[in-house]
């Protein structure tokens, strides 16, 4: 039995016990309780929002270079704490330590990126149709942000909101996933260490009810949400008043491998983007459409590579590629999608089961399903686990149609060495990101967001900060 950590809320610059009961957090590799954190109540949420509202009255006027200084310092503090932050991530959601460390390092860079952006918030001076007038367009922070995040990237998904909001001059209340509160607490320790003014960034842990209370709070100015489409819809119904929302929702991302693809690269890309983080990535490749000429070679090579992945406990074992999935719902969804595909005629080339040698923990073997058809769940619903469905196609037009045929519009992937195909697919795929001959659809300086059922609004890049700013037109009559 591991040591059970006691986490607390961070409100108005102080660590607080919550008013409610404690929430148990489990290690997905062992099932043991590893942390107890507040299941925060409406009162806890109200204290956090009120603190953020008070702090906004001064933070909004703090010189951007000073805001940048805090963000740079927090990025440095986070990089220095990466070992313990990464361990907190792995202990609660299972990704192997090197992946968790990479996540922390990327978040540290995000702090520095938005520190720089804070100093580049610019407006415009516009000519008027009448002499003696000047129009100034200024950008101002929106106010208090409610950030609600999932568990698959427990610190990065907080960071994209936190860094951009603080850079813009907003204050924030973060409600992390109930599966991964300790990683969030570690990030807030870094904010405390750099003496960010009290109330500028607040943390309330808890489950869905805590998120509901936060969204419903009338003093919130904007809701920034990342999570499932179902919760996104619930938030629409709960939010109080009229206010901006950003919704980064689920994906169901297709890969198209054309007859002109480099098959070595396509297999390597599919392996990485289907099984990294045990497939628990909103932009994971769920389904692949492969030209008939390459199809059998592609599925056989992908299955062989997937079989070679080491499944294990990413906290206590070395050289693990795929850890346990974070919760039992994901495990059961993998089983459901595989059973459904099997019953409709798919070939299970590898995986398709929990590993026999690991009776404890939420483990599921990397799974490649061949000969899939679009009616199979794996081809039109997000699995969010280490499962990929593959289907052959004969003409590219039908592959594009199938790729676009689901409600998801987050990211799509293409492998092709043919420039005409690359441009055609880049234009025709109806997704917020299209990655061609690579599977890293997001970079920090380019806008990242979904369309259709995958939501709206952008994170990353300058656009990621614009969502926390509002414009003001000041029209000055100066007579000269
Ligand atoms: P989830 O929707 O179950 O939970 C997300 C967060 O919402 C949690 O903090 C949860 O406590 C909170 N919540 C639950 N009910 C709520 C309510 N009624 N009101 C307010 N908050 C509420 O999602 P999850 O299982 O944690 O995460 C997986 C999902 O997130 C997947 O669908 C995945 O694709 C998506 N995701 C999307 C992106 C993206 O950038 N588009 C990134 C990562 C994950």
Please explain how this structure is put together.
It is a single chain. With 480 residues, this protein is α/β, with parallel strands linked by helices. It folds into two domains: 5-249 and 453-474, Aldehyde Dehydrogenase, Chain A, domain 1 (3-Layer(aba) Sandwich), CATH 3.40.605; 253-443, 3-Layer(aba) Sandwich (Aldehyde Dehydrogenase, Chain A, domain 2). The chain is built from 15 helices and 21 strands. The protein has helices spanning 42-59, 64-80, 82-93, 97-118, 156-168, 181-193, 208-216, 229-238, 263-275, 292-307, 328-343, 377-380, 396-403, 419-428, 461-466, and strands at 5-6, 9-11, 14-16, 22-26, 33-38, 124-126, 133-141, 144-148, 171-175, 201-203, 222-226, 245-248, 253-257, 285-291, 347-350, 367-370, 387-393, 411-415, 433-436, 455-456, 469-477. The chain has a seven-stranded mixed β-sheet, sandwiched between helices. Strands 10-9-8-11-12-20 form a six-stranded mixed β-sheet, with helices on both faces. β6 and β7 form a beta hairpin. Nicotinamide-adenine-dinucleotide (NAD) binds next to α7 and α8. Residues 15-474 form the Aldehyde dehydrogenase domain. Pfam families: Aldedh. InterPro entries: Ald_DH/histidinol_DH (IPR016161), Ald_DH_C (IPR016163), Ald_DH_CS_CYS (IPR016160), Ald_DH_N (IPR016162), Aldehyde_DH_dom (IPR015590), Aldehyde_DH_Superfamily (IPR050740).
Please supply descriptive tags for the structure shown above:
480 residues, alpha/beta, Aldehyde Dehydrogenase, Chain A, domain 1, Aldehyde Dehydrogenase, Chain A, domain 2, seven-stranded mixed beta sheet, 21 strands, binds nicotinamide-adenine-dinucleotide, Ald_DH_N
């Amino acid at each position: 039995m591991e040591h059970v950590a006691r986490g607390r809320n961070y409100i108005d610059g102080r660590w607080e016990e919550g008013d409610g009961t404690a929430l148990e957090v489990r290690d997905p590799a062992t099932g043991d309780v590893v942390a107890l954190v507040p299941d925060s109540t409406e009162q806890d949420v109200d204290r956090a929002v009120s603190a953020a509202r008070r702090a906004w009255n001064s933070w909004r006027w703090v010189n951007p270079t000073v805001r940048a200084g805090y963000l740079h310092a927090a990025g440095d503090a986070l990089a220095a704490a990466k070992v313990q932050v990464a361990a907190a991530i792995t202990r609660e959601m299972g990704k192997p330590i090197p992946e968790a460390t990479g996540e922390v390092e990327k978040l540290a860079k995000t702090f520095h990126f938005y520190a720089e952006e804070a100093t580049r918030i610019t407006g415009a001076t516009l000519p008027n149709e009448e002499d003696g007038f000047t129009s100034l367009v200024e950008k101002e922070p929106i106010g208090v942000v409610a950030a609600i995040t999932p568990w698959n990237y427990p610190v990065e998904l907080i960071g994209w909101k936190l860094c951009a909001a603080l850079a813009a001059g907003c204050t924030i209340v973060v409600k992390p996933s109930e599966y991964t509160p300790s990683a969030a607490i570690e990030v807030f320790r870094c904010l405390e260490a750099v003496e960010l003014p009290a109330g500028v960034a607040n943390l309330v842990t808890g489950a869905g009810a805590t998120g509901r209370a936060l969204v419903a709070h009338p003093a919130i100015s904007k809701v920034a949400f990342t999570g499932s489409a179902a919760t996104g819809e619930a938030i629409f119904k709960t939010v109080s008043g009229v206010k901006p929302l950003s919704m980064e929702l689920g994906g169901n991302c297709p890969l198209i491998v054309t007859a002109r693809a480099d098959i070595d690269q396509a297999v390597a890309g599919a392996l990485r983007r289907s099984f990294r983080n045990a497939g628990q990535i909103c932009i994971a490749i769920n389904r692949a459409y492969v030209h008939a000429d390459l199809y059998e070679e592609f599925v056989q090579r992908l299955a062989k590579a997937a079989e070679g992945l080491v499944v294990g406990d990413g906290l206590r074992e070395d050289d693990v590629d795929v850890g346990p999935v974070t919760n039992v719902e994901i495990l059961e969804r993998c089983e459901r999608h595989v059973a459904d595909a099997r019953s409709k005629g798919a070939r299970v080339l590898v995986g398709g089961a929990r590993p026999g040698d690991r009776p404890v923990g939420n483990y599921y073997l990397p799974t490649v399903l061949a000969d899939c058809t679009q009616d199979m769940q794996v081809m039109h619903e997000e699995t969010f686990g280490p499962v990929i469905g593959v289907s052959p196609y004969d003409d590219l037009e039908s592959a594009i149609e199938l790729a676009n045929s689901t409600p998801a519009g987050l990211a799509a992937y293409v492998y092709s060495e043919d420039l005409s195909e690359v441009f055609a697919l880049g234009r025709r795929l109806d997704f917020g990101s299209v990655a061609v001959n690579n599977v890293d659809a997001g970079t920090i300086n380019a806008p990242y967001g979904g369309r259709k059922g995958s939501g709206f609004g952008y994170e990353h890049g300058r656009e990621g900060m614009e969502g926390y700013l509002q414009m003001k037109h000041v029209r000055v009559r100066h007579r000269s």
